[in-house]
Design a protein that fits this description.
Length: 509
């Protein structure tokens, strides 16, 4: 049978999802395989509040050949060493989920296991005292890990806080410079062939756009994958109760800290994402437990600095498409699914979706075996992230509101329940294939939420334990001393990648 290669791919929708998809195709294929056209309309706004990333985002920039310092300047970004969680396990308690490693293996034993036995024998210092990202974040200091080779700082990792709209603008310029054609227009109709494949788009002004393959980046509207092809959506709101967010921007008060804040509230949580010249703030909440007006009032009572935007309401539904790729339509971003932004995974799932698309790149006939394997792998990613987010809720000890009583007693996805039960034995964990969240991530959150295993791995008993507390103390003191020598996060930005000062903000009364 004669093979029919793709000649043209059309991306429907811009924003972060659309321009990441266009940019990575333009760079990956360098105009040698097929033409790329992106259809978007300035009349249709993008959500633009996803302003936090995870470390693999830096790998995306590297694959694109983007200079990291230039990107930080152009997107007014700051550096992110992890997330500080306040009031999640109980009111008044806080913990830090860092990027990178915590401690170093001791012989054949994972550091967490050694620390676990030490704590059971009265060792007082917390797990995160041995995490370089955690200690830098606590002290407000920063350096690039590769600038500190052969030291404990080298095993830290980091991501970025970015302005989502500036990211889309940056990637649009990048993609257009590499041959991507942008068409301004509103999609009025999606026309399909008798076999159900999408054939063309009809725009509001009567123009049509044809392609062999379409990438649906139309957000929650899901114009192609949902409305045209009728692919269903699997709702996860029975596990993730929050379904709305109020977002607002404020002026910075002091230098930006190198971490995201996730502060639990009565019926959800609020974020603070500090950029170079402003902060993004939001309140994620359950509309079954709180009204928009109440949620807005809670957020405005806690933000720091004058407002530079009016509060914006963002409704959402957590879940995933039953098929993320169906026939000749691939959905990316919000069109494919959404998991609330607690661990900043939305942008990660966009480029993860494109990475798997490259692995299973079809021809114009779109053999369903390729789509089936793609959907299996991407669904595993969505479920892994879903379970990790649920972990933050179900391990709480809070019972002060109906919201917290519900999430701490709900029936969990079986795989998540299995992981928690296994961890409680002796800290053992099931690490998924090519998972985003590794053992140290689960250890950090479970420890931060107060979940303590009943024992430790027997291999730790091979160590001469009388030396362990002293070795831990030396490691902890050495890390603290290294961090104390670093400059502040703000100083690092000022020296290496400061963005141009913005125009004075128009404050909102």
């Amino acid at each position: 049978m004669e093979r029919r290669p793709l000649k043209k791919v059309c991306v429907v929708g811009g924003g972060t999802a659309g321009w990441i998809a266009a940019a990575v195709m333009a760079e990956h294929f360098k105009g040698r395989l097929f033409d790329i056209e992106l259809v978007e309309s300035d009349d249709i706004g993008t959500i633009g509040v996803g302003e936090s990333t995870v470390p693999p985002f830096l790998q995306l920039l590297a694959k694109l050949g983007v200079n990291e310092q230039e990107f930080v300047r152009e997107t007014q970004a700051s550096f992110k060493l992890g997330i500080e969680f306040r009031d999640w396990s109980e009111k008044g308690e806080r913990y830090f989920h860092p990027f990178g490693e915590v401690g170093a293996p001791v012989g054949l034993s994972d550091f967490y296991q050694v620390w676990l036995k030490a704590r059971a024998h009265g060792y007082a210092h917390p797990f995160q005292d041995f995490g370089p990202a955690s200690v830098m974040a606590r002290e407000g200091r920063f350096t690039l890990p590769h600038k500190a080779p052969n030291t404990p700082l080298s095993v830290a990792s980091y991501a970025l806080h970015v302005d989502a709209k500036l990211v889309a603008r940056f990637l649009r310029a990048f993609a257009e410079a590499r041959g991507v054609r942008r068409t301004e227009g509103v999609v009025e109709e999606v026309q399909t062939r008798p076999d159900g494949f999408v054939e063309r788009l009809r725009l509001r002004d009567g123009r049509t756009v044809e392609a062999d393959f379409f990438i649906d980046c139309s957000g929650f509207r899901a114009l192609l994958i949902g409305k045209a092809l009728g692919v269903g959506f699997e709702d996860w709101s029975h596990w993730l109760l929050c379904d709305r967010a109020i977002a607002v921007q404020t002026e910075n008060v002091g230098p930006p800290p190198p971490y995201t804040l996730a502060h639990a509230q009565a019926c959800g949580w609020r974020w603070r994402i500090p950029l170079q010249h402003r902060a993004g703030n939001g309140h994620v909440f359950s509309s079954a437990h709180m009204s928009d007006d109440e949620a807005t009032a809670v957020l405005l009572s806690q933000v720091e600095g004058p407002l530079v935007t009016q509060p914006m309401t963002v409704p959402f539904k957590t879940g995933v498409r039953e098929r993320i790729w169906d026939r000749n339509v691939l959905s990316i971003g919000l069109a494919a699914g959404f998991i609330e932004p607690l661990e900043s995974t939305a942008i990660h799932l966009i480029y993860r979706g494109m990475d798997f698309f490259f692995r299973y790149l079809p021809d114009a006939d779109c053999d369903p075996a390729l789509a089936e394997e793609y959907n299996r792998r991407m669904r595993a990613d969505y479920e892994e992230i879903r379970d990790f987010i649920i972990l933050h809720y179900c391990t709480t000890r809070r019972d002060d509101t109906d919201f917290w009583r519900t999430v701490r007693t709900m029936e969990l996805p079986p795989e998540l329940q299995r992981k928690i039960d296994l961890f409680k034995v002796n800290g053992a964990l099931v690490e998924g294939l090519d998972a985003l969240f590794r053992d140290v991530n689960w250890q950090s959150v479970l420890d931060g939420m107060g979940v303590t295993p009943r024992g430790w791995h027997p291999l730790v008993d091979r160590l001469p334990f009388e030396r362990v507390p002293g070795e831990l103390d030396r490691a902890r003191a050495g890390l603290a001393e290294l961090v104390a020598r670093l400059g502040s996060h703000g100083d690092f930005i000022a020296r290496h990648c400061a963005a141009a000062p913005p125009a004075p903000p128009a404050r909102v009364a």
